[in-house]
Amino acid sequence: xxxxxxxxxxxxxxxxxxxxxxxxxxxxxxxxxxxxxxxxxxxxxxxxxxxxxxxxxxxxxxxxxxxxxxxxxxxxxxxxxxxxxxxxxxxxxxxxxxxxxxxxxxxx
Length: 108
What we know:
Layout: H1 21-33, H2 37-44, H3 48-56, H4 63-72, H5 77-101
Helix pairs in contact: 1-3, 2-3, 4-5
Keywords: DNA-binding
Protein name: HigA family addiction module antidote protein
Pfam family, one: HTH_3
């Protein structure tokens, strides 16, 4: 396995549209290959229902799932984890920003 030295200032281009990791999995990897969740599940050892949950956005890509996807598809486990982390960070940032924009505590 090739490890990458990470720069502490590593960031994602904010102009890149945010996509759910499950959308990337479905639209960029499963559909072009004609793979169903059941077929990908057989290749990865991940239950089809779990993969379906990832594509629907009700489940996350965990480190174990990332490693299993990396064995069956071209992207590395790091790629799958980076997609999930970027999505989680952006969602949390939006949540915190929304909370801060609300009325100050005790003003109601």
